[in-house]
Design a protein that fits this description.
Chain lengths: 220, 247
């Protein structure tokens, strides 16, 4: 009964103070105080700040190391950094930058002396901006007592790869697993395809450079 | 260059005060709902493993996207959705307000950041953009992009304004004008390997569609006039798509 009365009172107050409609509904206490008509209607605006003491941690940054298989040039150690911003529990954006030193083609190995690229042209440096989707969130269990939040995610991005003395527009498709070791440290396993057009060996072709990495990141 | 960037990323990850592990503090609030549901992780799929009754207090510890980690008086920690915490009170009796998206975000947001990709006269475009909503219909915006073509590479940076015709519609058209700098670097195999950096101005038209209260997809056509150091000005076209987050 008491509850019904309050709802009735609130509805009346809400109608009278239309500009602050949504605000009044959210807080019965304040709404009741405003029941007396006021000469000046207060314009209540949402404060866009978190309460003091509450730390928002939507950024995630860290380093990765792994291997990248550079088409025609063998697999090399790949390392770099990544920084992500988590918009919602489902969607994030991520910038990745990494580098690797390409090996030799089979032709270079067999012919003995022929060199297709100079030493500096073998540096394989890439960056990309991607949108990610946490498709399969969940928990992983470690031993009998620990449950850690995890997510399998997919990313799609575009960027640039500098290799063989040229910049190549690169499309990046990735899938990864993120496991949170505690509230702010995460480990990732990622598989990514860095795809770009290359005419290095005479013919224009789409090269797929598969990268497998392990990352350690921190939320802040 | 890359080494410096990596260092910055590393520093950001390790030195930020927010990265400190356990803290005793936190913002105290009092539960007003019949009960507050604590989940085991920051997501809607995580199971509810504990409830805090009305009138009890909890401390807000940290926030990730729309989820806030709280600790109750017995020390149990769990994650609560923002919408449920907005029905709690501070110890002073004031309602707790947590910033987040609402149906008004479309017309009331202040900032936009986005990723851009597209085509500029045959060259691939990849870049980032930002905008400040001066009013719901007027945006001040800037973007930088790398250009990757078959015969030349380069970069483009612009700043300008855009007018939105109907920001409250789900799909809203807009027009924009601005200026910037275009750098074109022909590939070394061509005869003129000199760099060219020219100022440029553009006029554009586009459509933006709101996906949610936070995201929108934007398609834009811009025509650039490049003020070259030669006698003739060049006109070039750009088509782009961007994925934009607004807040």
């Amino acid at each position: 009964m008491d509850r019904e009365l309050r709802v009735l009172l609130l509805s009346g107050v809400a109608l009278m103070s239309l500009p602050a409609l949504s605000f009044a509904q959210a807080q019965p206490g304040v709404g009741a105080e405003q029941a007396t008509p006021q000469v000046v209607e207060p314009r209540v605006k949402r404060r866009d700040v978190n309460p003091p003491g509450l730390d928002t941690e939507n950024f995630e940054a860290g380093l990765f190391v792994g291997t990248v298989s550079i088409e025609d040039f063998g697999a090399s150690v790949s390392y770099g950094g990544r920084i992500a911003y988590h918009f919602t529990e489902d969607v994030f954006a991520e910038a990745t930058i990494g580098t690797a030193k390409a090996g030799k083609t089979s032709y270079e190995d067999l012919s003995g002396s022929a060199q297709l690229l100079t030493d500096s042209e073998r540096q394989f440096t890439h960056y990309d901006l991607a949108v990610g989707w946490n498709a399969l969130p969940g928990e992983v269990f470690f031993g009998g007592t620990r449950a850690m939040p995890s997510a399998v995610y997919f990313t799609l991005g575009a960027g640039s790869t500098n290799f063989a003395g040229d910049d190549h527009f690169t499309v990046v498709l990735g899938a990864g697993l993120r496991v949170l070791a505690n509230d702010w440290i995460a480990v990732h396993l990622d598989a990514r395809d860095l795809a770009f057009d290359s005419d290095l060996l005479g013919k224009d072709k789409l090269t797929h450079n598969l990268q497998f990495t392990f990352s350690l990141t921190a939320f802040f | 260059m890359i080494r410096r960037l990596l260092t910055i990323v590393l520093l950001l990850g390790t030195l930020h005060p927010g990265a400190a592990p356990a803290r005793s503090g936190g913002a105290p609030v009092v539960v007003q709902d019949p009960y507050l549901e604590l989940r085991s992780g920051p997501g809607r799929g995580f199971p509810v493993f504990h409830v805090v009754d009305r009138g009890q207090g909890v401390d807000l510890l940290r926030r990730r996207t729309d989820w806030i980690k709280v600790r109750d008086s017995e020390g149990t920690e769990g994650w609560v959705h923002r919408s449920q915490l907005e029905r709690t009170l501070t110890p002073g009796g004031e309602p707790v307000v947590l910033p987040g998206p609402s149906p008004e975000s479309r017309t009331e947001h202040r900032w936009e950041v986005g990723l851009v990709t597209g085509d500029l006269e045959g060259a691939n475009v990849v870049g980032a953009q930002g905008a400040w909503a001066m009013t719901p219909t007027l945006l001040v915006r800037a973007d930088v992009a790398q250009l990757l073509g078959n015969y030349s590479d380069g970069w483009l940076g612009t700043a300008g304004i855009a007018h939105l015709f109907a920001p409250h519609w789900r799909v809203s058209p807009f027009v924009g004008i601005g200026g910037g700098v275009l750098n074109v670097e022909p590939k070394a195999t061509l005869v003129q390997p000199d760099d060219r950096t020219d100022s440029t101005a553009y006029a554009g038209i586009g459509l933006r569609g709101y996906l949610t209260h936070r995201f929108l997809l934007q398609a834009e056509y811009r025509q650039f006039v490049v003020f070259t150091s030669r006698d003739d000005n060049e006109e070039i076209d750009e088509w782009t798509v961007s994925f934009v987050y607004f807040f």
